[in-house]
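Provenance and format

Records in this collection were gathered into a single text stream. Each protein contributes a sequence line and a token line. The two records reproduced below are adjacent in the stream.
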Amino acid sequence: MGLSAEQLRSSLDALARIEPAFAAALAHAGYPEPRIRDRGYATLLRTIVGQQVSYKAADAVWAKLEAALIEATDPARIAATSDEDLRAAGLSRQKTGYARSLAEEVLSGRLDLANLPADDEEAIAQLVRIKGIGRWSAEIYLLFAEGRTDVWPAGDLAVQVEIGRILGLPERPSEKTIRELAEKWRPHRSAATVFAWHHYMFDPATQSAKNSAI
């Protein structure tokens, strides 16, 4: 499960002591709500379904998939369903392949989502073996579904934009720069991530540019 409200508050209070800019931003935007997903196959499958489409479209495809497969959360159902039927349920050709890759990894035992490595980088390495799951998706899974405390998706555009804004930087920092900046925030970078998204959505100046898949 993801970080609880208490964990977020504790980590953000610690960040405010480390980085004065966070203290000011926290006073401005307040504490974020927890973002929690279930651990396991269904969450990763929903991640694949939701790629490159709106939340509304993703929900519609998921509902159609559940109706067609009865138990879409069972990887054996995906494995036993023809490509034609998966396409008819709303999955693109590419996402059909991704869904099969995930189901095969789970069914074969090569991917044990109940026992991912404790080391974040090792866990990410296991997750990105799945077709359609890149580093960002793996990081988001570890953050929302496993509640890991020090995940830092530095490639996320909204995180880059808002951390730059919080720190008062003249331009959006690069992924490399933002990784370096966040080293001193360990082991609270997951909370920094959630707060960056919260601050991004809170700030009226970004209302017209909210296109991050968070």
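Adjacent record:
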Amino acid sequence: MSSAPSWWRHRGPRAWLLWPLSLLFAAVVRIRRRMFAAGVLRASRLPVPVVVIGNLIAGGAGKTPLTLHLARELSRLGWHPLIVTRGHGGSASSPREVGSSDDAAQCGDEALLLARRSGVPVWTGRARAAAAAAGLAAHPECNVVLCDDGLQHYALVRDIEIVVFDRRGIMNGFHLPAGPLREPMSRLSAVDAVVLNGTAHAPPGGAAVFRMTLHGELFERLDDRSVRCMAEGLAGLRLHAVAGIGEPARFFDHLRMLGLAVVEHPFPDHHAYSAADLEFADCDAILLTEKDAVKCHGLSDIPMWVLPVEAHLDPDLAAVISVRLTEWMNGPPSS
């Protein structure tokens, strides 16, 4: 199963049964946001600008590849980003820096992937403001914070908000638990940019819209990432594909687009894999997403191949953010 229940896609009996609870959830969300805005609940401002990447629905929509893209592109433009994330799936709750050799069970799969791929410091913590403060103290050269999946974390003051949508959109449009919405669609009127992952449709709202496409064609052997091959090198093999991401079908569709026939194995988002999960009969190779790969090393004797992906943005979102950051540096907010 994926992280989003199939019945979230429609306003069926189960969704309507939970609809009263969704109204309560929406009311609590609205009151909480107003309390932060009024100063009743305290929010921390950092000494550097904060860019938040998030979404309105529960589950992944492509935030992590977007965060990787922005970290690299902003670095290329002369900025020194620090990435802060909750560390979903990890056991650690207090602020900590994530190293490339850390255990995903402690720091979380996305955090470990970010640490290995971004080339910038990555810190995790349940309280993002505390994690960011600790990260800035350890890395005083950092002059911008990228907060992965922090849209609803109002305890951290943000200067730029980016919302990501994938092709699922808002599904049935109900709030949790009757549907996937964490916040109402009216929230889009306050964000700075909307990023559409793949074939996602633009939602109503006044924010600037950017199109993101994920490109990946070169597979890497999990036990030796220097060994690589194109899809043609795997054609004809009995392939099983594993995906424990927000929408596993996105990975399987990508493999089919590359011309590969695979047996699909969707798992819940942030799934903690065991050897039993990868026991496949009639299998010559297992294909993994990067997010899953950080948790699967050594779990199977079957050859495992990872497919790294790179995000491409149109127009150039990093350039737009860089201009905003420069404006912030010339006159940062006082509150």
